[in-house]
Design goal:
This protein has helices spanning 2-22, 29-40, 58-61, and strands spanning 70-73, 79-83, 91-96, 100-109, 112-119, 122-127, 131-132, 149-152, 158-162, 170-175, 179-188, 191-198, 201-206, 210-211. It has 215 residues and is an alpha+beta fold. It has 3 domains: 2-40, no CATH class; 52-132, SH3 type barrels (Roll); 149-211, SH3 type barrels. α1 (2-22) crosses α2. Mean pLDDT is 77; it is low at 36-63 and 136-141.
Length: 215
Protein backbone atom coordinates (compact mmCIF):
# COMPACT_ATOMS: atom_id res chain seq x y z
CA UNK A 1 0.00 0.00 0.00
CA UNK A 2 2.89 2.35 0.91
CA UNK A 3 4.69 1.68 -2.38
CA UNK A 4 1.49 2.37 -4.31
CA UNK A 5 1.04 5.72 -2.55
CA UNK A 6 4.65 6.63 -3.32
CA UNK A 7 4.17 5.80 -7.01
CA UNK A 8 1.01 7.91 -7.21
CA UNK A 9 2.79 10.79 -5.49
CA UNK A 10 5.70 10.64 -7.97
CA UNK A 11 3.27 10.54 -10.89
CA UNK A 12 1.59 13.66 -9.51
CA UNK A 13 4.92 15.45 -9.33
CA UNK A 14 5.76 14.50 -12.90
CA UNK A 15 2.30 15.59 -14.12
CA UNK A 16 2.61 19.01 -12.50
CA UNK A 17 6.05 19.43 -13.94
CA UNK A 18 4.78 18.53 -17.41
CA UNK A 19 1.87 20.98 -17.16
CA UNK A 20 4.22 23.69 -15.99
CA UNK A 21 6.43 23.13 -18.99
CA UNK A 22 3.46 23.34 -21.34
CA UNK A 23 2.44 26.71 -19.91
CA UNK A 24 5.97 28.03 -20.00
CA UNK A 25 6.41 27.85 -16.22
CA UNK A 26 9.54 26.14 -14.93
CA UNK A 27 9.24 24.51 -11.53
CA UNK A 28 12.05 23.31 -9.34
CA UNK A 29 11.72 19.83 -7.81
CA UNK A 30 10.92 21.45 -4.44
CA UNK A 31 8.11 23.59 -5.93
CA UNK A 32 6.62 20.63 -7.76
CA UNK A 33 6.65 18.60 -4.53
CA UNK A 34 4.89 21.42 -2.64
CA UNK A 35 2.14 21.70 -5.25
CA UNK A 36 1.61 17.95 -5.23
CA UNK A 37 1.09 18.05 -1.47
CA UNK A 38 -1.46 20.86 -1.88
CA UNK A 39 -3.34 18.80 -4.46
CA UNK A 40 -3.50 15.87 -2.03
CA UNK A 41 -4.84 18.01 0.83
CA UNK A 42 -8.15 18.98 -0.85
CA UNK A 43 -10.96 18.78 1.78
CA UNK A 44 -14.14 16.89 0.92
CA UNK A 45 -17.41 18.67 1.79
CA UNK A 46 -20.51 16.64 2.71
CA UNK A 47 -23.66 17.59 0.75
CA UNK A 48 -27.21 16.83 1.85
CA UNK A 49 -28.93 13.94 0.10
CA UNK A 50 -31.73 14.85 -2.27
CA UNK A 51 -35.26 13.87 -1.41
CA UNK A 52 -35.18 14.52 2.33
CA UNK A 53 -36.35 11.00 3.16
CA UNK A 54 -39.60 11.38 1.24
CA UNK A 55 -40.70 14.58 2.99
CA UNK A 56 -41.79 17.56 0.96
CA UNK A 57 -42.38 21.25 1.46
CA UNK A 58 -45.82 22.69 2.09
CA UNK A 59 -45.88 23.99 -1.49
CA UNK A 60 -45.40 20.48 -2.83
CA UNK A 61 -48.24 19.08 -0.75
CA UNK A 62 -50.66 21.80 -1.78
CA UNK A 63 -53.35 20.45 -4.06
CA UNK A 64 -56.96 21.03 -4.97
CA UNK A 65 -57.95 18.49 -2.34
CA UNK A 66 -57.57 19.83 1.19
CA UNK A 67 -58.32 18.58 4.72
CA UNK A 68 -62.05 18.73 5.36
CA UNK A 69 -63.02 17.91 1.78
CA UNK A 70 -65.22 14.89 1.13
CA UNK A 71 -64.69 12.47 -1.71
CA UNK A 72 -65.67 9.08 -3.06
CA UNK A 73 -63.38 6.05 -3.15
CA UNK A 74 -62.60 4.84 -6.66
CA UNK A 75 -60.46 2.05 -8.10
CA UNK A 76 -60.37 -1.00 -10.32
CA UNK A 77 -61.00 -3.42 -7.49
CA UNK A 78 -64.11 -3.51 -5.33
CA UNK A 79 -62.12 -2.97 -2.12
CA UNK A 80 -59.76 -0.02 -1.59
CA UNK A 81 -56.78 -0.53 0.74
CA UNK A 82 -56.08 1.87 3.62
CA UNK A 83 -52.43 2.01 4.70
CA UNK A 84 -50.89 2.72 8.08
CA UNK A 85 -48.61 5.43 6.69
CA UNK A 86 -48.29 7.39 3.47
CA UNK A 87 -46.01 5.48 1.11
CA UNK A 88 -46.11 2.36 3.29
CA UNK A 89 -47.11 -1.16 2.29
CA UNK A 90 -48.84 -2.26 5.50
CA UNK A 91 -52.61 -2.42 4.98
CA UNK A 92 -54.64 -1.71 8.12
CA UNK A 93 -58.15 -1.74 6.64
CA UNK A 94 -60.17 -1.94 3.45
CA UNK A 95 -63.24 -0.04 2.28
CA UNK A 96 -65.71 -0.60 -0.54
CA UNK A 97 -65.37 1.44 -3.71
CA UNK A 98 -67.98 4.22 -3.94
CA UNK A 99 -68.04 5.01 -0.21
CA UNK A 100 -67.86 8.67 0.75
CA UNK A 101 -64.93 9.63 3.00
CA UNK A 102 -63.47 12.78 4.57
CA UNK A 103 -59.92 13.98 3.94
CA UNK A 104 -57.95 14.60 7.15
CA UNK A 105 -54.46 15.28 5.82
CA UNK A 106 -52.52 15.54 2.55
CA UNK A 107 -48.85 14.73 1.92
CA UNK A 108 -46.45 13.58 -0.78
CA UNK A 109 -44.01 10.68 -0.80
CA UNK A 110 -41.55 10.35 -3.67
CA UNK A 111 -43.65 12.71 -5.78
CA UNK A 112 -46.89 10.79 -5.19
CA UNK A 113 -49.81 12.40 -3.35
CA UNK A 114 -51.42 10.53 -0.45
CA UNK A 115 -54.57 11.33 1.55
CA UNK A 116 -55.34 10.47 5.17
CA UNK A 117 -59.05 9.70 5.13
CA UNK A 118 -61.76 9.07 7.69
CA UNK A 119 -63.74 6.12 6.35
CA UNK A 120 -66.44 3.96 7.97
CA UNK A 121 -63.74 1.33 8.64
CA UNK A 122 -61.45 3.90 10.30
CA UNK A 123 -58.55 6.23 9.54
CA UNK A 124 -55.99 5.29 6.92
CA UNK A 125 -53.83 6.57 4.07
CA UNK A 126 -54.78 6.05 0.42
CA UNK A 127 -53.20 7.01 -2.88
CA UNK A 128 -54.56 10.06 -4.68
CA UNK A 129 -55.68 7.86 -7.56
CA UNK A 130 -58.16 6.17 -5.22
CA UNK A 131 -60.06 9.34 -4.31
CA UNK A 132 -62.44 11.37 -6.43
CA UNK A 133 -63.72 14.65 -5.04
CA UNK A 134 -67.04 15.49 -6.71
CA UNK A 135 -68.29 19.00 -7.19
CA UNK A 136 -71.17 19.19 -4.78
CA UNK A 137 -74.32 21.03 -5.70
CA UNK A 138 -74.61 24.38 -4.02
CA UNK A 139 -70.85 24.62 -3.46
CA UNK A 140 -70.58 27.74 -5.57
CA UNK A 141 -72.48 29.02 -8.56
CA UNK A 142 -76.13 28.18 -9.12
CA UNK A 143 -75.66 24.44 -9.09
CA UNK A 144 -77.75 21.91 -11.03
CA UNK A 145 -81.01 23.12 -12.54
CA UNK A 146 -84.30 21.36 -13.33
CA UNK A 147 -83.77 18.91 -16.17
CA UNK A 148 -80.13 18.21 -15.28
CA UNK A 149 -78.94 14.66 -14.61
CA UNK A 150 -77.01 14.20 -11.36
CA UNK A 151 -75.80 11.29 -9.21
CA UNK A 152 -76.60 10.38 -5.63
CA UNK A 153 -73.70 10.41 -3.15
CA UNK A 154 -73.54 9.74 0.60
CA UNK A 155 -71.50 7.99 3.28
CA UNK A 156 -74.18 5.30 3.57
CA UNK A 157 -75.27 2.98 0.77
CA UNK A 158 -78.90 4.21 0.70
CA UNK A 159 -80.01 7.84 0.30
CA UNK A 160 -83.30 8.97 1.83
CA UNK A 161 -85.92 10.78 -0.28
CA UNK A 162 -88.18 13.10 1.71
CA UNK A 163 -91.79 14.09 1.15
CA UNK A 164 -90.98 17.80 1.40
CA UNK A 165 -87.86 19.97 1.40
CA UNK A 166 -86.62 20.35 4.97
CA UNK A 167 -89.01 17.70 6.24
CA UNK A 168 -88.23 14.56 8.25
CA UNK A 169 -90.70 12.16 6.65
CA UNK A 170 -88.92 9.65 4.40
CA UNK A 171 -91.02 8.36 1.52
CA UNK A 172 -88.41 6.29 -0.34
CA UNK A 173 -84.75 5.34 -0.54
CA UNK A 174 -82.37 5.02 -3.46
CA UNK A 175 -78.93 3.44 -3.88
CA UNK A 176 -75.83 5.62 -3.85
CA UNK A 177 -74.44 6.29 -7.35
CA UNK A 178 -77.85 6.18 -9.06
CA UNK A 179 -78.44 8.70 -11.85
CA UNK A 180 -81.48 10.90 -11.20
CA UNK A 181 -83.11 13.94 -12.83
CA UNK A 182 -83.59 17.31 -11.13
CA UNK A 183 -87.26 18.37 -11.13
CA UNK A 184 -87.17 21.38 -8.81
CA UNK A 185 -84.77 23.35 -6.58
CA UNK A 186 -85.48 25.27 -3.37
CA UNK A 187 -83.82 26.46 -0.16
CA UNK A 188 -84.87 25.81 3.43
CA UNK A 189 -83.02 27.59 6.24
CA UNK A 190 -80.14 28.36 3.88
CA UNK A 191 -79.78 24.75 2.72
CA UNK A 192 -80.46 23.69 -0.86
CA UNK A 193 -82.90 20.90 -1.52
CA UNK A 194 -83.58 19.16 -4.83
CA UNK A 195 -86.73 17.40 -5.97
CA UNK A 196 -85.47 14.44 -7.96
CA UNK A 197 -87.02 11.85 -10.23
CA UNK A 198 -85.39 8.58 -9.16
CA UNK A 199 -86.17 4.96 -10.08
CA UNK A 200 -88.00 4.63 -6.74
CA UNK A 201 -90.09 7.75 -7.44
CA UNK A 202 -90.15 11.49 -6.76
CA UNK A 203 -88.66 12.86 -3.56
CA UNK A 204 -86.58 15.65 -2.03
CA UNK A 205 -82.89 15.23 -1.19
CA UNK A 206 -80.33 17.55 0.37
CA UNK A 207 -77.82 19.33 -1.84
CA UNK A 208 -74.97 17.41 -0.20
CA UNK A 209 -76.44 14.17 -1.55
CA UNK A 210 -76.04 14.94 -5.24
CA UNK A 211 -73.10 15.50 -7.55
CA UNK A 212 -72.75 16.37 -11.21
CA UNK A 213 -69.89 13.90 -11.64
CA UNK A 214 -70.47 10.18 -12.00
CA UNK A 215 -68.92 8.26 -9.06
Amino acid sequence: MKSRTTILFLLGVLLLATLACQTGEVLTPAEATARAKEARSVRLVNTPALGGGGQSSSQETEAEVKPGDTGVLVGRGYMISLYQEAGATRIIAQQERGVEVTVKDVTQVDGETWYLIDAPTGLGWIKAENLEVPKKAGAGGEGPQPGDTVYLVARSYMISLYQEAGANRIIAQQERGTAVTIVDVTEVDGEKWYLIDAPTGLGWVKGENITTEKP
